Amino acid sequence: MAAGFVELDKVALCYGGGPEGTIALRNTSMSVQQGEFVAVVGPSGCGKSTLMKVITGLWPASAGSVSVDGQKVTKPLSIVGMAFQNPSLLPWRSTLSNIMLPLEIAQPHASKLRRENAEYLAKARKMLELVGLQAFEAKYPWQLSGGMQQRASLCRALIHDPSLLMLDEP
User: Fold this and answer.
1) The pLDDT value given to residue 170
2) Of the candidates 24, 7, 8, 28, which has an alpha carbon nearest to the alpha carbon of residue 16?
3) Would you call 163 exposed, middle or buried from its count of C-beta atoms within 10 A (0-12, 13-18, 19+)?
4) How open is the CA angle 36-64-81, to the nearest 5 degrees?
């Protein structure tokens, strides 16, 4: 069997380090094939969010190895779209501007954004329409309900056509 798109081999993560640290992941191994849909379920505090952060490179593993698309994860990955438990929208940016944020950061979009801005804006507006937020593109996060913020966060996770989509309690 070929290696998975996402590979974890005996991954561990301990918050706080030392004997007083909190073990969030211990000896965690898994393989996810490209195109596969995987749901990780468990009680609150069992390490689901930590697993997402380790896979995406937001937190380095304390032990073991993580690879995505054949590359060892050593830093945050630009090929990932993420939606967290809390929407994490930037309060000083409008809904549309929040959705466009990954395009400003992730390559190859960042280098094309100025030149292809009209196309990217059209795509973002189409996504807003799909989730029923077309009338709220100029609104700020504090002007949206919690559900509206989550839908905007999902649009932001998808805008750059990620190879890997990670949703934390979507």
Assistant:
1) 65
2) 24
3) middle
4) 40
